[in-house]
Amino acid sequence: MKIINKMKANYFSVKGKRKENEDFVLSKPLEGNMSIHLIADGMGGYDNGRLAAETVANTIFEYLKINKDFNNTNEIIRQSIIKANTAIKELSSARSITLGSTIGGCLINDNKATIFWVGDVKIIHVRNNQIKFESEDHSLINHLKRKGNISGNLNLDSIRNVVTKSIKGEVNKFNPDIVEIKPAPSDKILICSDGILEIKKLTDIAKMNLSTEVELENLKNKCKNNSDNSSLIILQFQKNANKTEITNFD
Description:
12 strands; alpha+beta; Phosphatase 2c, domain 1
């Protein structure tokens, strides 16, 4: 348990019925009142997926830890993801394997939260149990919807997990979406891999009271029966708080 600033951060990650957990959760303090919270969902199968997720998450963290000028937060985040993309490219080449990862994260800097994502790790901002903001997946389904190419003859299940952006060493396919928000006291930001959505819809998750250890343990135990890896970070902004805790429920 580590102390950061006016926010409670809880997280867990379970493999479900998969052979390996290819999700990697990172929730750590940075300098001063800053902290970084992210989920990387690895691609490539078994050990390769886990390796990709860890490489991406740790590269982003190390870049943010060294580069302490956050006057231009968006650019710092972009540069950290460029570094992660380069790291994946070099590792893939050195080992002659295919590696890749999607990612969703939130950088906290005092009272500002900057959320970013590449791929289909979902991020929602919740206020009064209602979704105030929801990230739009970089997925083939969303791409076809925007183009107006969804028809009744299309088998959506066959393309549900196909992403149009990921961090896998390719040029111009890893650019993140970045959104800045200012959470009010009692707001929540949730970051979740797609396995979480096997349990409940996002609107139902937004209404859940996940403020106690018992409730988080119950949700985690339900996720153990999922077909996919399931990871969740919940950031709860506290009224009249003078410290923040990061707790791992793994």
